């Protein structure tokens, strides 16, 4: 019964629809002849029972009163001689409706509480109250020995969830507080999964979830729920902290597999995902030690976004062909109330190393698309690019959300650009690469950022869903600002143009670099020498002054076509 109750309560919309359908379909039976109206009114117990099971005591009574109105003498008046009897009959039926609705609501609540109590007892040593680290294996063995079969419904599913920042949590919060966080995390995991799921601590930093039957969510759905849990912070006094989770899942029939095999397979999946994350973190990301101070700073990201401490600024890029600012790069800046300006080099890598990066990137998309829509309404058609983290590309849903967001704001798809580091784009595979191709085909612009030419073979550029490369000026130049290997870079730029790609020189900070990259034939220049990042409300004014910037002495001798005046 607890499974039915939890299923109904976990899906209130579906449950309400069932109650309404049952009410109206059964009420329709009352339109038959009066002789059988009384017996048929018993069918109205169905919506009453459903309401009690799904929503508890109060809604069980409410549904009972609604059903009693459906059979009231006001709607079906009796003959004068038996009118009093009909009212008595109605009162009795109303009483029974209310009794049944109330009792079912109470029983449903008790069943839910009892299931919760049983679940809380699972995975806990009754003698000490501490986690039973061997409980998951015992539970799997019981499931495997209880029944045999080879249908999907008989499969046993094991999911292991590792808290990768467990040691940092202990350092920051202390052992007692960390145990409180782990207890709350266990409850969140249990609430997100079917009622009969077994959740226990297999190690200090590892949860094991065991479930079986057709109610078990798919691996994709389960990982999505766990990601939502990982993105939600835990509040400790005046501090918010995040748990960083990595999960792996293994399934097998009740016959022909052992508990050790399932646990080992799930653990291998966790290890593989950790390895994938480590590879992603090593591509285009600066690793920051998530020590106590940084972990505390990470916990403040969500609040900082809500309070407006983190804002988006926009760095213009100058098109040398048109002498206009038509491209902007969206960058984040954090003005902390006590720390002051937090350098992006400190908080961006920290965010990228945690699952909060998905929440942060979604916020960036929403902010940027809303601002692009505002500028477009003023007659300024601008393309704004957003940097994607390696972890963003592992998110199964983030890229799918971009087209609906643009459509909702009425923004053309070619007004949004995505930038992916050269180190990362070579690791794109399967669904990630296909999704990037779909976005490119829809008109969303894609660029290879931090390009130096030693990671992506030039011939491979032809197969990638990109239309721009952004040369990393700082890495390509020596201390004097001159190119380290000008001949090679000329070949790179020429081939990029042959492939129909735009070339942006990103990070131009002095006139020596300016002349070097103009001579290469770059199409666009970006950097502090051209324009510093601007607040959103200053962008349109700067656009109008782009011609004046291009007329500065340092641009003398540069042809309108972007060349070196040859």
Protein topology:
Blueprint: H1 2-10, H2 12-28, H3 37-40, H4 45-55, H5 57-70, H6 83-121, H7 135-146, E1 156-163, H8 166-192, E2 198-203, E3 206-212, H9 219-231, E4 234-236, E5 239-241, E6 245-252, H10 259-281, H11 292-299, H12 301-306, E7 310-319, E8 324-336, E9 340-342, H13 344-352, H14 356-377, E10 383-387, H15 402-409, E11 416-421, H16 422-425, H17 430-442, E12 445-451, E13 468-472, H18 473-476, H19 486-498, E14 502-506, H20 511-520, E15 524-526, E16 534-535, H21 539-544, H22 546-550
Parallel strand pairs: 8-10, 10-11, 11-12, 12-13, 13-14, 14-15
Antiparallel strand pairs: 1-3, 1-6, 2-3, 4-5, 7-8, 7-15, 7-16, 8-9
Helix pairs in contact: 2-4, 4-5, 4-6, 5-6, 8-9, 8-11, 14-15
Q: What is the compact description of this entry?
A:
By secondary structure, this protein is α/β, with parallel strands linked by helices.
């Amino acid at each position: 019964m607890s499974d039915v109750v939890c299923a109904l309560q976990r899906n209130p919309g579906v449950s309400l629809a069932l109650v309404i359908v049952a009410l109206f379909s059964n009420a329709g039976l009352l339109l038959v002849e009066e002789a059988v109206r009384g017996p048929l009114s018993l069918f109205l117990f169905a919506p009453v029972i459903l309401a009690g099971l799904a929503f508890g005591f109060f809604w069980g009574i409410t549904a009972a009163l609604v059903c009693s109105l459906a059979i009231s003498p006001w709607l079906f008046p009796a003959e004068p001689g038996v009118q009093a009897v009909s009212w008595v009959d109605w009162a009795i039926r109303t009483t029974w409706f209310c009794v049944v609705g109330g009792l079912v609501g109470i029983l449903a609540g008790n069943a839910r509480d009892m299931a919760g109590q049983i679940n809380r007892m699972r995975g806990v040593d009754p003698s000490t109250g501490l986690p039973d680290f061997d409980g998951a294996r015992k539970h799997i063995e019981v499931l495997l020995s209880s029944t045999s079969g080879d249908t999907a419904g008989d499969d046993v599913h094991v999911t292991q969830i590792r808290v990768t920042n467990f040691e940092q949590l202990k350092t920051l919060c202390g052992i007692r507080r960390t145990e409180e966080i782990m207890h709350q995390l266990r409850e969140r995991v249990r609430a997100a999964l079917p009622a009969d799921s077994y959740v226990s601590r297999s190690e200090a930093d590892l949860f094991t979830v065991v479930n079986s039957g057709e109610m078990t969510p798919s691996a994709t759905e389960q990982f999505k729920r766990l990601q939502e849990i990982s993105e939600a912070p835990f509040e400790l006094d005046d501090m918010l902290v995040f748990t960083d989770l990595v999960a792996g899942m293994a399934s097998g029939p009740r016959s022909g597999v052992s508990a050790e095999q399932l646990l080992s397979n799930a653990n291998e999946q966790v290890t593989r995902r950790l390895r994938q994350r480590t590879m992603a973190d090593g591509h285009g990301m600066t690793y920051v030690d998530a020590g106590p101070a940084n972990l505390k700073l990470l916990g403040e990201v969500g609040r900082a976004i809500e309070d407006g401490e983190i804002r988006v600024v926009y760095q213009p890029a100058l098109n040398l062909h048109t002498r206009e600012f038509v491209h902007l790069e969206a960058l984040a800046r954090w003005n902390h109330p006590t720390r002051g300006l937090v350098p992006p080099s400190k908080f961006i890598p920290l965010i990228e190393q945690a699952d909060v990066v998905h929440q942060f990137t979604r916020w960036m998309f929403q902010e940027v698309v809303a601002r692009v829509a505002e500028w477009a309404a003023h007659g300024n058609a601008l393309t704004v690019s957003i940097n994607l983290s390696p972890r963003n590309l592992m998110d199964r849903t983030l890229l799918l959300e971009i087209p609906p967001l643009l459509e909702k704001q009425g923004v053309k798809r070619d007004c949004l650009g995505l930038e992916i580091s050269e180190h990362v784009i070579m690791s794109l595979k399967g669904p990630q690469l296909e999704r990037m191709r779909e976005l490119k085909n829809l008109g969303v612009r894609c660029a290879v950022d931090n390009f130096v030419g030693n990671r992506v073979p030039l011939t491979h550029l032809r197969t990638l869903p990109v239309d721009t490369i952004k040369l990393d000026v700082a890495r390509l130049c020596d201390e004097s600002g001159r190119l380290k290997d000008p001949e090679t870079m000329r070949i790179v730029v020429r081939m990029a143009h042959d492939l129909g790609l735009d070339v942006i020189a990103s990070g131009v900070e002095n006139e020596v670099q300016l002349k070097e990259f103009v001579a290469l034939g770059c199409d666009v220049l970006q950097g502090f020498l051209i324009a510093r990042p601007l607040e959103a409300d200053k962008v349109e004014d700067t656009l109008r002054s782009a011609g004046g910037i291009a007329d500065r002495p340092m641009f003398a001798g540069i042809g309108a076509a972007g060349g070196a005046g040859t």
